[in-house]
Amino acid sequence: MKKIIIGNLKSYLNSKETLELLSKIDSSDELILAPSPPFLALAKHKFPKFNLASQDVSAISNSFGASTGEAPSDMLKNIGINYSIIGHSERRTANLDNEKSIGQKISNCLNSGITPIICIGESKEERENGSYIDKIGSQIKEIIPKEKEDIIIAYEPIWAIGTGLIPSLEEIEEVASYIIESTKSLDNNVFLVYGGSVNEKNAQDIANIAGIDGLLIGKASTDSDKLSAIIEVVNSR
Ligand code: PGA
User: Fold this and answer.
1) CA–CA gap between residue 116 and residue 144 (Å, rounded)
2) pLDDT tens by residue, 21-41
3) Of 175-179, 188-192, 193-197, which gets the smallest average pLDDT?
4) Rg of the chain over all Cα atoms, to the nearest angstrom
5) Where are the alpha helices (DSSP H) in the chain?
6) Best label site of 119, 130, 155, 212, fewest CB within 10 Å?
7) Among 96, 87, 97, which residue's Cα sits nearest to residue 120?
8) What pLDDT does 237 receive?
9) Is the dihedral of CA 12, 18, 24, 30 positive or negative?
10) Residue 6: CB within 6 Å of ligand 1?
11) 219 CB less than 6 Å from ligand 1?
12) pLDDT tens readout for residues 52-96
């Protein structure tokens, strides 16, 4: 199976740059791009073949109706969005998301037929004091749905996001095998991706780690040359 590549464009690019990026990359089943919210519908309209993800979804409501300023999952589905990033640490840190809202968002997505890309991972302190496995275990227990659905779990150590710091391959493998073991008894199909300071130089080694089905890439995915290089090395194993 080819590796899944998810590009989280965060709030880096303007509308012109977003469309330029998409025009320089080939769409494929395994590539999922998450443009900034104001450009999501435009990107889908101009590039209907691309798998696009929202960077968030409404916790309040999954359907059309009286919810001001929300992006309900039915509405995302209505414009052809099939994936949604949920619980990214940048949103958790800014107090925009917590385990309760994340759980609600996941269930809204599943009700609308959107595959959630659920972000989990430990802080620097938790890594250093050795409690990272406990942290990941409790996140899995609290938010990973149990029903039979496709879900993507993104293991993103918070301290590796946007820092250039990256766990060793062995450290990633340890967590990957723990996540696989702890989700084995659930009915759903879990795909596991790694995210945090992935670039064109380290992508191949990380993607080759046992149990890793793909990569979630932030900054490097906003540069078409880097993103193309990552797609190429990851699939040339
Ligand atoms: P980064 O971001 O690749 O820029 O570290 C990854 C992420 O936040 O998903």
Assistant:
1) 10
2) 999 999 999 999 999 999 999
3) 188-192
4) 17
5) 15-24, 40-46, 73-78, 89-93, 99-112, 124-128, 132-143, 169-183, 203-207, 224-235
6) 130
7) 87
8) 60
9) positive
10) no
11) yes
12) 999 999 999 899 999 999 999 999 999 999 999 999 999 999 889
Q: How far is the CA of 230 from the centre of ligand 1 (A)?
A: 14
162 within ligand 1 shell (Cβ under 6 A): yes
pLDDT band at 3 (very low <50, low <70, confident <90, very high): very high
For range 228-233, the mean pLDDT: 96
- Which whole-number Å values give the CA distances from 10 to 36, 122, 138, 215, 217, in the listed order? 6, 20, 26, 15, 10
* Ligand 1 proximity of 193 Cβ (cutoff 6 Å): no
Which residues lie across from 31 on neighbouring strands? 5
